[in-house]
UniProtKB/TrEMBL annotation:
Ranges annotated as biased composition (Polar residues): 76-85
Record-linked PANTHER family: 10A19I.15
Region (Disordered): 63-103
Phylogenetic placement of the source organism: Eukaryota, Viridiplantae, Streptophyta, Embryophyta, Tracheophyta
Protein name: Uncharacterized protein
Length: 191
């Protein structure tokens, strides 16, 4: 549940009317979302405020230079007599992170596309399960020039011998026909 004080709620809902359905109300499917997204936020004495690091040493050069300077909280309060213009804090928005994010998205697009294809194949396999023996039966019965009774015997033999069946299924149709002839008539051309 997202809870806000009544005053904050009123101001926020005025600025964001679409959020009214979600604030100060239980979230639908919260337990499912908790399982999927995780519920690993620190609580109690382990929770940290965004203001907790004020006054600590901060390396402004992203560890490029070895000297870190202490950052003190701003204790100067502006008043009417103070005409000094305070420098504005650095902006949190810059062009560089946006470009980096865009490049990262572009790099991951083929990976995501491949992942989607794989998931679709898995979902299709779950929806339409086909046992290898069904494919084997089709491959045996599509051979011309043999009575169906003999082809049924070939299928039964291959069904019992998975190694032979897998080898049979990957062969071209002409070689499958030769294999069936060898099986039915029992001749061996290695002599």
């Amino acid at each position: 549940m997202i809870t806000l004080d009544p005053v904050v709620y009123k101001n926020y809902v005025e600025a964001h009317p679409a959020a009214k359905a979600f604030i100060n109300r239980p979230l639908e499917n919260y337990e499912s979302l908790k399982i999927i997204c995780g519920d690993d936020h620190a609580t109690g004495s382990y929770a940290k405020s965004i203001f907790e690091n004020f006054g600590e040493r901060v390396d402004l050069e992203d560890n490029m230079s070895g000297d870190a300077t202490p950052v003190a909280p701003n204790t100067v309060r502006p008043n009417e007599n103070n005409t000094e213009v305070l420098p504005s804090p650095p902006s949190s928005t810059s062009v560089r992170p946006v470009r980096e994010k865009k490049r990262a998205r572009e790099k991951s697009a083929p990976v995501i596309s491949h992942l989607i294809d794989v998931v679709e194949k898995v979902a299709d396999a779950i929806k339409n399960p086909t046992h290898w023996s069904e494919v084997l039966y089709e491959r045996v019965m599509e051979l011309d020039g043999f009575p169906d009774v003999l082809l049924e015997e070939v299928f039964d033999h291959l069904q019992e011998n998975e190694k032979d069946a897998r080898a049979f299924m990957v062969k071209k149709k002409a070689f499958r026909k030769v294999w069936v002839e060898k099986f039915i008539y029992g001749y061996d051309d290695s002599n």
